[in-house]
Amino acid sequence: MIVNKRSLFLFRLLSDLLLSNAAFLLSAVFAQSWVILIERNYMFYLQITLNILWIFTSTASTFYDDFYSRHFSIQYVNILKSTAVQAIASIIFIFLVKEDLFTRNFISYYAISLIVFVSLRVIVFRKVLKLLRKRGKNIRKLIIIGSGEIAQNFKALVESNPDFGYAFTGFISESVTASENSGSLGSLDDLETILLANNIEEAVIALSNGAGSKLDQIIKVCNRLAIKTHIIPDYFNYLSSRFQISSFGNFPIITVRREPLEEIQWRIIKRIFDLIFSFLVIVMI
Fold it and tell me: Is 179 helix (H, G, I), strand (E, B) or coil?
């Protein structure tokens, strides 16, 4: 599976680099002509720079992360961010070399074609990967550490979405007693043995607050066995549409009460009400 992950990563990266280079050349030809592009060969230095920037920005934004349960909209936002970096770098380069031909048309063509090409690649790749996973290809063996309500709900989610690419292997309970009651593969005392015996590739930790002290040891075991680990916090039970997850620096935080005016539709409604009310007051007075 490690080989498959690396192959998928390289395939996506190389495909996008090929598409970005195609977008660059097509945009340059449409903006001026192939002859002018050859004469001004310093534009190919820009092309090399843009390739390096794409690798850096796409990696930094985890665009090629293999966790394909993410919605396409998240990947589309990453495409827009990377394209914006490409456009800004092109503008800076053209300004520094004082290029007078490959200017607005070239940058516009390149940005639009890059967004279209990479978006189509993502859509096609997701469709193909989804089809392969439904046929039992590119499947990762998953185990859930914990056997409570959160663990059961996550198991139901995985089993109802085979296109996520996971084969659920079983639960590992927090204690021997819980293991006997839930019919799991075993308890945390046998964690390493269970992981090795079942060739587990990914683990999801869904422990209750009472077992939080064991989290550090679980992560150490998973890291030693090169198992990718995900953590579902226990406060997941308390989340609803009224809660908002965000970051404060490097700290993930949950805002329990959201202000209505933070949402644009309510701001628009309030603004309309203010205008109508002000207009009526002026007319009446």
Answer: helix
Q: CA separation (Å) from 108 to 39, 51, 77, 84, 88?
A: 22, 18, 18, 11, 11
**pTM for this entry:** 0.61
Backbone φ, ψ for residue 210 (5° rounding): -65, -25
pLDDT band at 114 (very low <50, low <70, confident <90, very high): very high
Which is nearest to 113 in space by CA: 86, 73, 75, 92?
86
Place of tokens 């290029």: 99
CB half-sphere exposure, 239, CA atoms < 13 A: 11
Which residues does 140 contact at the CB level (< 8 Å), separation at least 6?
Answer: 1, 165, 166, 167, 201, 202
The per-residue pLDDT for 104 is: 85
> Could you give all domains of the chain from N- to C-terminal order, each with its CATH number?
2-134 (no CATH), 140-238 (3.40.50.720)
What local confidence, expressed as pLDDT, does residue 154 receive?
Answer: 84
Cβ atoms of 101 and 32 closer than 8 Å: yes
